[in-house]
Structure formats: C-alpha cells, structure tokens
Amino acid sequence: xxxxxxxxxxxxxxxxxxxxxxxxxxxxxxxxxxxxxxxxxxxxxxxxxxxxxxxxxxxxxxxxxxxxxxxxxxxxxxxxxxxxxxxxxxxxxxxxxxxxxxxxxxxxxxxxxxxxxxxxxxxxxxxxxxxxxxxxxxxxxxxxxxxxxxxxxxxxxxxxxxxxxxxxxxxxxxxxxxxxxxxxxxxxxxxxxxxxxxxxxxxxxxxxxxxxxxxxxxxxxxxxxxxxxxxxxxxxxxxxxxxxxxxxxxxxxxxxxxxxxxxxxxxxxxxxxxx
Amino acid sequence: xxxxxxxxxxxxxxxxxxxxxxxxxxxxxxxxxxxxxxxxxxxxxxxxxxxxxxxxxxxxxxxxxxxxxxxxxxxxxxxxxxxxxxxxxxxxxxxxxxxxxxxxxxxxxxxxxxxxxxxxxxxxxxxxxxxxxxxxxxxxxxxxxxxxxxxxxxxxxxxxxxxxxxxxxxxxxxxxxxxxxxxxxxxxxxxxxxxxxxxxxxxxxxxxxxxxxxxxxxxxxxxxxxxxxxxxxxxxxxxxxxxxxxxxxxxxxxxxxxxxxxxxxxxxxxxxxxx
Lengths: 275, 275
Fold this sequence. Notes:
Two copies of one chain form a homodimer.
Chain A: E1 7-10, H1 16-21, E2 28-31, H2 34-40, E3 46-53, E4 57-58, H3 60-68, E5 73-81, E6 85-88, E7 100-103, H4 105-116, E8 123-125, H5 129-138, E9 142-146, H6 148-153, E10 157-160, E11 169-176, E12 185-191, H7 198-208, E13 213-220, E14 228-235, H8 241-251, E15 256-266
Parallel strand pairs in A: 1-2, 1-3, 5-15, 7-8, 7-9
Antiparallel strand pairs in A: 3-4, 3-11, 5-11, 6-9, 6-10, 12-14, 12-15, 13-14
InterPro entries (chains A, B): ACT-like_dom_sf (IPR045865), ACT_dom (IPR002912), Preph_deHydtase (IPR001086)
Domain Prephenate dehydratase (chains A, B): 6-177
Keywords (chains A, B): Amino-acid biosynthesis, Aromatic amino acid biosynthesis, Lyase, Phenylalanine biosynthesis
C-alpha cells in the first residue's frame, strides 16, 4: 500500500514531524511547508503533518489544506509530547555568552517564562525549531530552542533541558489519497447556509444519533470575509450505522460537506508500523 | 470617561492598530505585544487590539487575554481594510536591487502570490509590518511589505501598491475595565462540562430564544491538554430581555461563564469619537 519512496513530512530534517516520521519504514522526504507536503502526495505516497497542539490549538495550514484538497484523507493520528531544550553553538561556554536565541515563535512563547529567569531578551523567530538549530550551528554565540533530536543533528551543546513552561503535546496526522472507513474517529469539514441556527442544527443531528464530538473549530473561508467553515471530529467510523445515518442527515443541511475519512490512533513509541 | 493619557495600542508606532487608534483623541502609547496592552489598562484608560482578520481568523493572543482577564471588557469594534504596499529603502532604484523583503509572516503569506511574478524569494519574517518598515529604512537594498502609513512614517519609497492577494479586513476592539450593556452585539466565553452534547445544549438556548450567533470559536485551555474554551458573539445586548434570559440559562449548563460585555461598531473613517 505504501510507496517506500514517498513519505513526505514537514521538514526540515530534524523537525518534530521528522521524529514522528521515523516510526514508518521507507524513504522520508522533508518539505519546506505543510502545503508542499499536501502537494507532493501521489497515489502511492503518504504525508505527515501536525494538526493540533495542546497549547496553540489547531494548525491552520493543515486544516485549510484538508479543506481545499478534496482527494486527500486522514488515515492515522499520532500524539507526541514536545520537549524543548536550549542548545548552543560550541563557542558558548556559559549562559552569559549567548547573544541571540533562535526558534519558532510558538516555541519562544512556550519557553519564555522558564527562560526569563536567565535574563535573555534577544529572541529571533525563524521558520521552525530545526531551522533555529541550523542557524545556531553556524553562528558563534548563538543558541536555539529546539528538540534534543535537532540539537544532536546539528552538533549543538544542550545546556538546559525541559524548558517548556507547561506540558505540550502535538497531534500529527498521516494523510493519503486513500479514504479509510475503519478507525476510532472520523473527520468532516463543512459550511452551513447563512441563516440562524444553521450550526446548531448540524450539532443536533450528532446529539440525536448519540455521537460524541471530540473537536469543533472554525476557520475563515478567506474568499468571503467573515464567513467560516467548520472542522469536526467525532467518535466512531464511517462503517457504523449511526455515523452513516448522521452523515446522510447533515448532507441535507450543510451547504458543502467534505468527509475526510476515519482514522486510528498510532502509538508514537512503537516503531515500524508499515514494515 | 477616557483618560487622555491612556490609549494603549498594539505597536510599534506605524502599526495598523496605530492607524485605528488615531480615531481617538488623547495620548497614544504603543505596546510591544497584545498582552502588554491588556496589562497596561487602568481604571481610566482603554486599549486597542486586533481580534479577527478575514484571512487568518481570530487573533489568539487577544482571545486568550480576554478569557484570562476577568475585569477587562469589550466596548467597541472597528473594522479596517488592510492594504499592503511594497516599500523600499531609498537605495533601491529598481525591483532588481531588492535583496531582502521584511514583513510579518501573515503579510508575507497574503502578498506571496502577487509578488511571485517578480521572482522575489528572500522573505524574512519579523515581529510586525511596522518593524519590517523600520528595518527596511535602516538597511540598503531591502524592502518591507507594510501599510502606506508605516512606509511614510519611515521614509520608504512605495513601489507597488495593493499587493494583497485577496481582500483583507481586520476587526479591532476597544477594551477597558468598564462593562458595557448597550450595543449591537455581545461577547461571552465559556467552558462546558466534559460530557456528550454539552456545547450543543448551550447553542440550543440561543436558538430557542431566537438569538443569532455571529461567531463561534474554540481555543485550548492549555492547562489541560485537549480541553477547549469557547468564544461566542451574538446579536443583541445585555439589556435585551431575551439575552438576559439566555445568559441565565447557560450559566447553569456551562462550567465557567465570562460575560465580556456588549459593544457597538464604530466606523473607521469618522474621527475623534471621544472628543
């Protein structure tokens, strides 16, 4: 089923998504953006991207691509705890030597409180935590907030561990052109007619059919200011009779309905699912 | 009512929020972050921050601060179309001279398609569009994607106008410690008990009382992974009887309910509301 030459993931090499991709056997190809991961997927390849973070919430670029790319479905989800370290260029001998700290803006926010006791002020946001590690490897007296994995990849010295201000878990999804009907949860995306109670009436169908929602979120349609599409996850899979009935019912009261498939949760620790 | 020394806004000077703040008379004080605007507000001052963008959706830092700061309420909303320009350091004589383009990552995304026909590739994300203008003013052969206002403030040359890929409107709010009960719309934030249909039952009250929702959004609680709070806006004000009844009803079925007040829409073009 899986093309071993086609596991596309949100890079660069050393990213958190790269770590998650390591549970799959086969050639892994980093892409610069989530959109490029979606655009790379062929009939026989898969993609791996983050979809939600317990601190920052859903990842908009992933949602917007799922909504836009009708032929791409969600097959698995994988949760991973994100642990940040402060890693430095080998020129740094003490914390006082650090002139600049690179990281993704989210990671900077997530470590800010912990790092504030060391009086660092010069944080520079870059594309990703692994890009930050790359920069820190090239510039004297610089540091990165990144994963241990990225720090090792770029030969940085780890001088502080567990610098997250609070627990931080990211949920990743495996996407492909294959619609799966088995699994623990199902994802749909939809728009509703612009009239009172339209969203309420959709949720009513789930409630009346005894289906538990696990996620509801809204995203701007962009093309029309202040109009939103909704992203919903719920328990059960497409083969369940009550799910079938519900999807039929909501098809009549939504203006656009995209069924993104059912999916199973994979455990991060276990390796080589596809071997 | 308004302390003329206390109009705090999301800076730096030259930001889109700064432009909106100009409709108010009195001393305006830029703050580096949205959180700092919230933290600066005293009994007699106001704050101005963005809350939603028609392309990017709600502004998370604003929502999270509204949720966290119980004593801060929403008094007005103001919509403004965001028009981006490409502005250059005076050293730049033609598009080919541009070596680097600074901007906020959102603005880079919003102008990417339009700018792609000029073959620019070296975009560097910085804190804000006005910071980008500041950088471009200091560095030869650099440019910024920013507002005309910021370009003029930093003496840049505007070489391309209307570079947004699509229409882009930002909604700003005026916040203070005063709960307002008059206005066109009302904002509430709440959490629901962790049981099936909990959100549905809240929306049911609005539907049954004939109140139109204009916005629903969810944000992670952070303290507990995968638990969310909801942010709701609806038509009507707190003095309306049906709003009063609805708020009483949902108080019983939410686990935490924060009423952020009713508010009126101000027109951007009109100046000096408070004079």
